[in-house]
Amino acid sequence: MTYTKNILLSLCLCVIFVVAVIGLYSAPSYYIGNIASYQQTGSTITFNCGTPKVKITVCTEDMIRVRLAVDGNFQTRFGEEPYMVVKYDWPNVSYNFTDGGTYYQIETSKLIVRVNKSPLIVSFYDKSMNLINKDNDTNRMGWENTGLVYCGKDMPANEQFYGLGEQYAPDNNNGIMSYRGYTMEIWATDSQCEDYRPSYANVPWFISNKRYGIFFHNMGHIYYRFGTEATTRYSFESQSGELDYYFIYGGNDSKCYKTILDRYTELTGRPELPPDWVFGLGLIIGADSVSSAASNWRNSGIPGDMIGIDAGWYTACGSFQFSNDGQNNVNTAHNSNFKLWVWQVPLVVSGISNYTTGSNNGYFGRNNSGGVYQVSLWIGTGGYIDCFKSAARTWYKQIMNVKDSGGSTLNPPLDCFKTDDGEYTPDDTGFLMGEGVYTYNGREIHNSYGLIYNRTVWEKTKEWNNGRGFVFHRNSYAGGQRTPVLWAGDNGSTFGDASQWGKAGMDNTLRAGLSMAWTGFSFWTSDSGGCDGTRPNDELFQRWVCEWSNFLPFHVINDYTGGNRAPWYYSASMQDVMKKYTKLHYRLFPYIYTYAYESTQNGTPIMRPMLMEFPDDTNCEQIGGRPTTTVSGQQVMPQYMFGDWLLVCPVVTAGATSRNVYFPQGVSQWINYWDGTTKYTNPGVVNVSAPVDVIPVFVKGGAIIPMIDDRDYMRQIPNNRITLDIYPYGTSSFTLYEDDGSTLNYLTGSYAKTTFECIDGSPITINIGARTGSYTGMPTSRYYRLNVHNVNSAPVEVRRDGTNVLTKYNSTSELDAASEGWYYDSTKKMVDVKPSQSITGAFQITIHTVAPGPAVKILCSANPTSVVADGIKTSTVTAGVYDANDNLVTNSNASITFTKTGPGTLIGTNPVTVSGGIARIIFRTSTSTGTATITATSSGLTQGQVNITCVP
Question: What integer pLDDT is reported at residue 194 of this predicted model?
């Protein structure tokens, strides 16, 4: 939060800096020359080019590090800094290094790197020698004597670029997501103007639609020029530090961008899961008391979990002592089942005891004379915590033990903090790394200060939450994804016009979130409805607060201005809309939490840009640009995938009651989430209805969406019952992840997983797997309710485990009262199945729309049908026993033998006895490419076959 008095200054600076960004460029004076010699040591080859040296390190088969030392000395304080990168030591990788005459070649199992000798030019190829990326022949790696380092790359005509952190509107309303044609500045800034490009959370990392990413390992003042210095070239440069970048290749399959993010977050770190209550609704208050907010909230019937107290709660900034009460605030929140946080900045104002202690012990940034550098914020003047110094971090965590107004340490304590204003490190401030081993100035580490500050506070909150940390922060940098949750800063309460001091509105905020997803930040949100200006009108309240924000992983409303933005200050009808969507957000917790866990394992975000999910569809390349993107000649507002199965299409334009939706290529069926029946089977742009209280959401055919029961707060009741929303199409599955929601025990294996599978056909077959694993507090019993959509006619019968015929009921209420059975809703075309609550393990439900005949044939499928030939990747082959009309024969006990031709191997018991009409085997790739054909045979049945393509 930054108060209005700074806004005019910010706007002036916007104009000055944007002009500077565009006008600063001139070609470097020096470029890397010819290779004179080289040394090969392990995975690194060092090329000597006179005094300058270039190191190329094979980190993994798909990640290459390139470093330039202008003076021939690679600096540890830059090259091995511990803040952005968490992994420098990589296992040895098999590669071949050869002399090609005019070039040297480095070849791994995924990449070929050619290093031209005269002059040194680095080029990256795939294994088929298709060029991926190349240094520019003239404007290649270069430098200035001022300390500037530079790298220029060729830019093909159709190359696009994404990422760079939380970028609001670099497209200047041109409706694109790519940075092609723009100069982007990476410099942490208290940015409040939507077209002012330096952001709160810039990250020197981009992903290209050529399926590679480049991480510029540098903490200084960085510029990217995507075609603005030459239309066929892009470049990146920094005014300090080293030229040091990592090149990551994603391959050619449908998971290419996720592969890139997996490697990038392995390099820069993955988040730990925050406590489960963080996935609930939060409210930041100003004038309201904790007591009135808690009371109004619970009386509204809207679920909620967190209350935040904004600036002004303390006796002085950095005192960490409440000016009034304190303990009563904590107790009141906790007694109403809310968690409580307070706001802070990394400033300790002069004149208080904490300032004296920090000054005497060297815990603040230093000026050129060795004294405390006086940093002035709107809240006061004092010392900026030297978060690069371990002793200072330790001390800062000690003073964060917040005190009551009477001076007693809070017991119980707060639950977390909101951090602000991490962007204000002056260029000539002195900071230490460790205990004075290396010295940085503010210019060198300006971008990364907020990264370390947030981590320091996050580590403190872990002490209060059984090891799980949560810091609500706005300023970040590369590696910031490790400390959830980032929020989008001080946006305006508009759809997107510039009426509120030019601040970004809903449409730009959505664009920024998609940009963060490309940057590996899964745990992201915004001030729902905006932070500053006039409160949202009813339309914006519904579109942003009620609708869109409930399809984010986290949802926070900022009412710091005092008493008019919280839902209960709106009409009863508005509160009803809010209640509807917030209850849905809570019910979706198992779905969201499963993808949150996935983020901690491989970096795949929960909120996904369309191109990330559909990389072969070039129509997706610009979707997300604001206010609209042109697709097939039609205007499409931003849309995104929420997990694997939900397509979320917010309305970001005032007055709109419909919007165009783009259904991507490669998906054969989408279903309207709200009616469960309307289907879209062709790719392309479709105009859909969007009344003011409805956000268009669509479900991908095959979806299995787990949900929990309604609740007022996250931990109100145990998650004994799981309702599965199932949309049969083909063969699909979902593996539910669960843990205790409060400790780090999941890191050592204390969690449970359950796999659900649906096979569309006759019958529709649903397999509920046994829960594997365990954790403290795991429900001893698990009940299921299955809502199976897209069933066009009433079933003939529904069976459990092939032989148990379930009772049919005539209404939901009758089924609710029964111990087991089913009901068909002809309006929704949905079968509601209630399995017996006495089932403790795996079971199968089959929905028969016709009675199956005798078994006559085998039909096969594979998931996936295209896999990377690395000797590791696998595909599951499914063989089903069917009658002449393709109805699955669930009572078959046939024995199926699987055989294979082509690359790869079959793993597991073979032959396989059919269960519920199905038999499975695992196919594992070899390192050979080509097509593997798997054949399934059984006596008396026509054989089945499926092909699996093994790609490089």
Answer: 56
- The size of the chain, in residues, is 952
For 48, 55, 56, 149, 396, the CA distances from 73, given in Å and listed in that order, are: 11, 11, 15, 14, 35
Spatial contact of 244 and 53, defined as CB atoms under 8 Å apart: no
pLDDT at 53: 98
Kind of pairing between the strands at 233-238 and 808-809: unpaired
pLDDT reported for residue 799? 93
Angle of helix 390-399 relative to helix 449-464, nearest 10 degrees, comes to 50
Output the CA–CA distances (angstroms, integers) from residue 851 to 86, 316, 643, 797, in the order listed.
59, 76, 36, 8
Location of structure tokens 């940075």: 179
Residue 25 has phi, psi (to 5 degrees) of -65, 135
d(CA 617, CA 632): 12
- DSSP assignment of 138-185 equals SS-SEE-TTS-EEEEEE--TT--EEEEES-S-TTTTSS-S--TT-EEE
Which amino acid is residue 474, in one-letter code? R
Which tokens go with 114? 């050619």
Query: Does the bond joining 763 to the residue before it have cis omega, within 30 degrees of 0?
Result: yes
Contact (CB, 8 A) for 168 and 508: yes
Contacts 24+ apart (CB under 8 A), 597-601: 597/273, 597/737, 597/739, 597/746, 597/751, 598/737, 599/270, 599/271, 599/522, 599/523, 600/270, 600/271, 600/272, 600/273, 601/270
Q: Taking the complete model, does pTM exceed 0.85, yes or no? A: yes
Decide if 84 contacts 477 (C-beta within 8 A). Answer: yes
Distance CA 464, CA 466 (A): 6
- Could you tell me if 466 and 597 are in contact, meaning their C-beta atoms sit under 8 angstroms apart? no
Domains of the chain: 30-268 (2.60.40.1760), 607-691 (2.60.40.1180), 718-848 (2.60.40.1180), 857-951 (2.60.40.10)
Among 592, 554, 594, which residue's Cα sits nearest to residue 751?
594
Contacts of 72 (CB under 8 A, 6+ apart): 48, 51, 52, 53
According to the model, what pLDDT value does residue 516 have? 96
- The count of other CB atoms within 10 Å of the CB of residue 8 is 10
Cα separations in angstroms, 61 against 16, 90, 124, 186, 435: 44, 11, 12, 29, 36
E-only strand ranges, 361-485: 374-377, 380-384, 416-419, 430-433, 438-441, 471-473
487 alpha-carbon distance from chain centroid: 13
214, two tokens: 């480049």
The reported pLDDT for the residue numbered 287 is 60
* Residue from 942, 931, 767 nearest 862 by CA: 931
In angstroms, the CA 857 to CA 859 distance is: 7
Radius of gyration of the chain (CA): 29
What distance in Å separates the CA atoms of residue 332 and residue 336, rounded to the nearest whole number? 6
**Positions of the chain with pLDDT lower than 50, given as ranges:** 1-23, 193
Tell how strand 731-738 and strand 797-800 pair up.
unpaired
Report the DSSP pairing between strands 918-924 and 905-907: antiparallel
**The two structure tokens encoding residue 881:** 């026993």
* pLDDT computed for residue 598 by the predictor: 98
Find the helix or strand (DSSP H, E) in which 610 lies. Answer: helix 610-613
pLDDT of residue 501: 60
DSSP characters for 318-358? TT-BBSS-SHHHHHHHHHTT-EEEEEE-SEEETTSHHHHHH
Question: Quick one: pLDDT at residue 500?
Answer: 64
Give the pLDDT of residue 22: 42
Report angle CA 752, 755, 759 to the nearest 5 degrees.
175
Are the CB atoms for 640 and 608 separated by under 8 Å?
yes
- Are 528 and 505 in contact by the 8 Å Cβ rule? The answer is no
What residues pair up with 930 in beta bridges, in sequence order?
950
